[in-house]
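Materials and Methods. Structural model of Monothiol glutaredoxin-S6. The 102-residue sequence of Monothiol glutaredoxin-S6 from Hibiscus syriacus was retrieved and submitted for structure prediction as follows.
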Amino acid sequence: MEMVPRMVAERPVVIFSRSTCCMSHTIKTLISGFGANPKVYELDEIENGQQVERELHKMGCKPSVPVVFIGQQLVGGPKQVLTLQVKNQLAPLLITAGAIWI
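The predicted structure was written out as tokens:
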């Protein structure tokens, strides 16, 4: 379980996604709508996608996509991200991580 931490260290916002997943698209659109430029890993398109997905599953991510990390911290899946948005906590989290500036 060392591949995911390396991948999430690359950017303030990292999203693990699947190109055919409508919830993945929704979460990417939501976060990008704030002006953030997340690093997106499409697990069905990258070489080691199945291995990454297994690591995410072992970390407790069920379902395994979409999964969002902000500031190298696991936020969770769509339910957690949308809950943060409804509570007006997503933008402050993105600001603290350095993903957006206001």
